[in-house]
Amino acid sequence: MMQRFLELEVDENGKEKATVLEDKDNYKLFSSARFNLKVMENKKFVKTHFGQYPIIEINFLCSANVTSKSDAVNVCRRAISRAFKQHRYLYESKLSPLKDDEKEDCEQWCGKFTYKGIPDDEVIEGLGCLADYLNKFHKRKVFLLVDEYDSIISKALYDVQNADPETELKELEKAASFAIEVIGYALKNFSKIFKGAFITGILDVGGVSISTLLGNVLRRQFGTKNLCQDFYGFTEDEVCTLFNRFAVTEELREEAKAKYNGYFNGSKQRLYNPQSIVQFLGNLSLGEGALQNYWQQSGYIHNMYKLLEEGSVRRLLFKLLQGVKEDFQFKLRSLDLKDLKSLHNILVNQNLTCYPEIVVRFLVSLGYLTYSFDDHKLQIPNAELIDEITERLRHYFFESSGINSELDEDCSASFSKLTILCDEGESLPKFNEELANFQNSITCLLQRSKLIDPLNEATLQSIITLMCSKAGFLFGNEIIIPKHGTKVDIVLFNDKSGIIMELKCGSNTVQDAFKQIFEKRYYNVFTNKKYFDKRKKSPSLSFVIAMHVDSGNKASVMCLRREDVIHVLDGLQLDARESSLEDRIEIAVNSMGERFINTCCESAILGS
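The structure assignment produced for this chain is given below.
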């Protein structure tokens, strides 16, 4: 977009196509009544800058491995060659004022194979030379657009390896520095011929050894208060305008807002992921089916799963995955060389002795987390990202634990059917049949998977949580019950429904697990306003489920639906029918104790 607005439109000989502003092809595009673009309202700005500058557009995105400085040089070589090829007229046009050796230089950069022979030191100078040649040809200042400036750095973080740790970190520094050195050389040595430059990427890397070369570049970091803060992401007003234009229904727009917003700029505004909003609008014909996850991975988070195995970072990320905001004090500053080395050690060498702040800043840069400087709260931005990270965590955990992914899909599908049958109020026989299927699926999963460690309650809790959350629920583990100080193993919830699960292994029975739900007052979990108000959720009890796995990894499951609990309460002729279900259960437990609990146990559905 910026290129089309700023670029001097020329023909194949480098001659300006049109001198009258209204005759320029790009101007006709921007001034179209179809788009009604706000920028065109600023007549003075448009007249001053529209179509005035030769543009260098360079993209350092790389998919190849960057294991050394040599690889980084090759990526830059290709990127500079592509930038030169956009201006072949520099050496092909008869109008070119360049000297013969300068034309030969351009031709070498544009050649299919010849650019590969350009020495490393000339690669550093390549971008600056292109700017110089464009300035000489057009006698105008040049504008530089750089995208993915950090791509080489991101790749080097994972790819650089050496048997000698000191040599490895030095090679990382050289590889990570090279693209910045190329950009910095051009901007520092040819500063007078540049009208401006716009450099964008994901990671804000400001501390590598040659970063002084970018000393004349103003840094505008996402999430901080600056002039650019409203232009990275769609604001609330912009999303409302789009939803009105596309006639999105009220119900669907509220769900979309909840799913795709969540980032913060420096002025406390929430921002929406533009990619996701655009994809959602493109799929509106699917109705609710348009509410998919459109997140595009911007970093190699799969290696970050090692963080979840231990320490403060693991605990923090697990809390965030439950949809909570966490207090976290830190400064959103650029990553320096020391930070890159720490990240490299944790991502590649699995050295977990790093400061959580570095990892948090890294994940915020990649867009997996967002931070509000107003209340110092850290969170996963939205439901889309919670689903994305949970899915990646699921794959990692099941692979590392030896869980069969196909059998996991069967279990997840069965649990999803259970929740749907309960919501739709299906008959008891049909629900009972699916509960038995769920029990058998769990047994099959545990017995046919190659579990790396012996099954215990902690491992079982992780398996069941990750598997059941796939049915579209947020989850909580070890959630404290107000007043009683007890903790629920697993809570699954959304805007309306809540599910309580208690798990047991070994000598206990499924009946023991089921009775514990009532004995320890787990049914009161949804009155924990401190937990649920943070998530802006108000679920009510949908059903309780107990599970026991014996030494042979055979599962037993018991379940009691909301309507079954109400039937038990009515049968016992307890008063307070106007109270909430949780309050009625509390009265029953306090007044009748074992009699009520045993009646619930007798009424529960036992998988068979």
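Interim note for the steering committee: Residues 148 and 558 are 53 Å apart (CA to CA). The mean pLDDT is 86.
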